[in-house]
Structures are given as structure tokens and as C-alpha cells.
């Protein structure tokens, strides 16, 4: 009977447990998630204020309020990312404890099986033979019962190990996903800090240029518009002389879904072509109308690639012609005969000749270049008719770098999105 007691004892060894520590981690994770939820409510409130500000008349105070609400929104988004980093780190720690516990359980189960097998072998090779020869059959039946219990215990332990291994693999995959999220969040944190600096610089530049006076702000707006008009005339004259042959068979047929939307949330503020705004400002658009689509996008909104492709060029027209054109821009060349432009960005995330996938974050929206407010300007070209060029500008007195295209190469984005 001694050996039966041993068999039972072997299979009731308690598992390694860190329940109290895991509970503490889960409490901390819950606290962080609650903080994220509160911050996201703040972000929504700031976003609503920015939408209201966009509809207001352009005044210095309205612009200052917009920049201040943008700062608060960006700061709240930064805190959300910081909380997500902490949450991901805690989750990784929690999964690490769970993995360690399962590995300890598997080790213990394997030790139990090894011990049980040794006992079975001992019974089969020694005790059973000796008992049979001695004729002590009552002892034999007890040993057989003990052997049966040992074998049953081995089966149970093997089943437990299989289940533990399945759980272990799931935990390891979850941990790997959390680590990838952590890398993404840390990248987002770096981006958000850069965008906050951009917003701070924009605020300081505005206050310095206007000296906090409305009259100076109006003068600045008028000067920017005049420079924009002159620059667009100069560029338009050059583009109208390009006369690049474009083979329509190398352009995909218009249809919804050829390209994906470059933002998660879509609100169109100006369409392509001869819009009412372009008709009211003919000198700005050289009679051709608006060459893309404008989407409402507050500063720091992630901008995504509309299709897989390669980065044909990046640049910043503000380096030569401040406030006159696209500001920070990205040109992607796709493999279907189309190219796409993303302009007025606050931050560029990619490099020239870099491959990009559909939906990849390539930058963040802003108000660089000529922009009456934060937005994303999105242009679609027939690739045959667009190129990145360095051009000498008489208007700006320097060499600018940006996409230039035959007017025939500009396509209506809404026919492809």
C-alpha cells in the first residue's frame, strides 16, 4: 500500500503559481486603460473645437485658439501613447509570468512521468517476478493495482503537458504581438514629440510675425496669398509647355477601390477641378481648377499610402518659397500607371526609393506650404506625365524641388478612391 500512496502523492504536486503578482499587473493594466479612455474623451472634445474653429472667420485670435487646441490635442495623444507603452510593457510582464508558470508546470509534469515510469519498470522487472515466484498473490494484486494507478497518472500527466504546451504557444504568440505593438507605440511616441515641436514652432512663428496684432496677421495672410498666386502662375506656365505624351492604355480604368483612402476618417473640404473655390480664385489655380482633393485632417493625423508602390520623391517647398505651395510633400509611384501626392504634411516618415505597402503610415498631416488650415492635399497623376524636378524660381529667388506634371496628367482622385 505504500507504493499506492506514493503514486497518489506524485500527481497532486501543486503547480507553480504567481497569481498574486499577475493580479497586481492586471490591476495596473486596468488603471492604464481607464486613463486612456479618459484621454480619448479629451481628444474628441479638442477635435470638435478644431472643427468649429475651421468654420470660423480667419482672425489672429481664431488662429491662436486653433494652435492652442491643437497643442492640447497633441499632448493628450502623446499621453495616450505613453499609457499604451506602459500597458504593453505590463502585458508583456504578465505574459512572461504566465509563460514561466506553464514552463515550470511542464517541467514538473515531466519529472512526475519520469518518476512514475521508473516505478513501473521497477514493478515489472523486479517486484512482479519475485512476487509471482514467491506465491504471495495478495501482494501481487496490490502491486498490479499500484501499477494501474501509476499508468493512469502518466496518461493524465501527458494530457496535461499537451494542454500546457498549447497554452504556452498561445502565450508566446501573444507576447510577440505585444512586443511588436510596443515597438510601434515607441515609434508613434517619437513622431508625436516631433509634431508637438512643429506645432510649437508654428505658434512661435505666428506670434513673432504678427507681434500679436490683427492688422499684422491680415498683412501676413495677404502676402502669403500674393506669393502663392505668383508662384502658381510661374509653375503653371512651365507645366503648360511640357506637352508630355500620355498613353491612356497605361492608366487603369476609373473605378472605386483602385486606390485606398489616405486617411482613416474622410471629410472632403474641396474636390478636384473647377470647384466653386477655384472659380472664385482663378489666379490661384491658373484656370485649371484644383489639381487634387483636400481632406480635413488636424495636425498629426496619420497619412497612409493609397496603394503599394515606391517613394518617387519627398521635399519641402517652404525651404525656398515659404507658404507658397505644397510645403512638405511625398510622391509615391505605384505599379498600375498611377502616382499619388500627399502635401502640407507636418512630418515625413519615409525616404526616397523606399518601398511602401498599401495603408502604411508615410507621414502626418499639417499646415505647411500654402494652407488656410490643417488639411491633406491629395493628387493623382498619370505616372507618364509627372516627374520630380529642381526648378529655379524667379518669384521665390531660389531653386525649389517638387513634382511637376503636364496638365493632362492630373486625374480626378475621386474616380479611383
Topology at a glance:
Elements: H1 2-10, H2 19-54, H3 60-134, H4 137-210, H5 214-240, E1 268-270, H6 276-280, H7 282-285, E2 293-296, E3 302-304, E4 309-316, E5 328-334, E6 338-348, E7 355-356, E8 361-365, E9 375-382, E10 386-393, E11 398-405, E12 410-411
Antiparallel strand pairs: 1-2, 2-9, 3-8, 4-5, 4-7, 5-6, 6-8, 6-9, 9-12, 10-11
Helix pairs in contact: 1-4, 2-3, 3-4
Q: What structural keywords apply?
A:
single chain, 417 residues, alpha+beta, Glucose Permease (Domain IIA), 2 domains, 10-stranded antiparallel beta sheet, two-stranded antiparallel sheet, 12 strands, elongated, disordered N terminus
Short description:
The chain is α+β, with helices and mostly antiparallel strands and 417 residues long. It has 7 helices and 12 strands.
Amino acid at each position: 500500500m505504500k507504493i499506492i500512496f506514493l503514486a497518489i502523492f506524485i500527481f497532486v504536486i501543486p503547480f507553480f503559481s504567481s497569481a498574486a503578482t499577475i493580479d497586481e499587473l492586471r490591476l495596473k493594466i486596468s488603471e492604464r486603460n481607464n486613463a486612456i479612455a479618459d484621454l480619448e474623451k479629451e481628444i474628441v472634445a479638442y477635435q470638435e473645437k478644431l472643427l468649429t474653429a475651421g468654420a470660423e472667420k480667419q482672425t489672429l485670435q481664431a488662429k491662436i485658439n486653433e494652435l492652442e487646441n491643437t497643442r492640447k490635442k497633441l499632448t493628450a495623444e502623446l499621453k495616450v501613447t505613453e499609457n499604451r507603452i506602459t500597458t504593453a510593457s505590463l502585458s508583456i510582464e504578465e505574459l512572461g509570468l504566465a509563460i514561466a508558470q506553464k514552463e515550470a508546470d511542464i517541467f514538473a509534469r515531466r519529472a512526475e512521468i519520469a518518476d512514475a515510469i521508473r516505478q513501473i519498470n521497477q514493478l515489472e522487472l523486479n517486484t512482479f517476478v519475485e512476487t509471482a515466484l514467491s506465491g504471495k498473490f495478495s501482494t501481487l494484486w496490490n502491486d498490479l493495482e499500484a501499477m494501474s494507478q501509476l499508468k493512469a497518472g502518466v496518461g493524465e500527466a501527458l494530457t496535461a503537458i499537451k494542454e500546457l504546451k498549447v497554452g504556452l504557444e498561445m502565450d508566446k504568440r501573444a507576447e510577440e504581438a505585444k512586443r511588436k505593438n510596443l515597438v510601434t507605440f515607441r515609434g508613434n511616441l517619437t513622431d508625436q514629440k516631433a509634431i508637438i515641436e512643429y506645432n510649437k514652432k508654428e505658434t512661435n512663428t505666428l506670434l513673432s510675425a504678427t507681434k500679436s496684432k490683427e492688422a499684422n496677421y491680415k498683412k501676413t495672410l495677404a502676402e502669403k496669398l500674393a506669393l502663392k498666386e505668383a508662384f502658381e502662375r510661374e509653375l503653371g506656365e512651365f507645366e503648360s509647355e511640357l506637352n508630355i505624351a500620355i498613353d491612356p492604355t497605361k492608366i487603369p480604368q476609373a473605378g472605386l477601390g483602385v486606390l485606398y483612402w489616405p486617411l482613416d476618417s474622410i471629410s472632403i473640404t474641396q474636390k478636384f477641378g473647377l470647384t466653386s473655390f477655384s472659380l472664385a480664385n482663378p489666379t490661384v489655380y491658373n484656370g485649371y481648377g484644383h489639381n487634387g482633393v483636400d481632406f480635413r485632417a488636424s495636425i498629426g493625423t496619420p497619412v497612409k499610402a493609397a496603394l503599394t508602390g515606391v517613394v518617387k520623391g519627398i521635399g519641402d517647398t517652404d525651404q525656398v518659397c515659404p507658404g507658397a505651395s505644397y510645403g512638405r510633400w511625398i510622391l509615391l509611384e505605384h505599379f498600375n500607371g498611377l502616382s499619388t501626392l500627399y502635401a502640407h504634411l507636418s512630418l515625413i516618415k519615409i525616404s526616397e526609393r523606399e518601398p511602401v505597402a498599401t495603408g502604411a503610415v508615410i507621414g502626418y498631416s499639417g499646415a505647411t506650404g500654402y494652407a488656410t488650415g490643417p488639411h491633406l492635399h491629395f493628387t493623382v497623376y498619370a505616372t507618364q506625365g509627372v516627374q520630380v524636378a529642381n526648378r529655379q524660381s524667379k518669384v521665390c529667388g531660389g531653386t525649389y524641388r517638387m513634382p511637376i506634371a503636364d496638365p493632362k496628367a492630373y486625374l480626378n482622385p475621386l474616380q479611383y478612391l
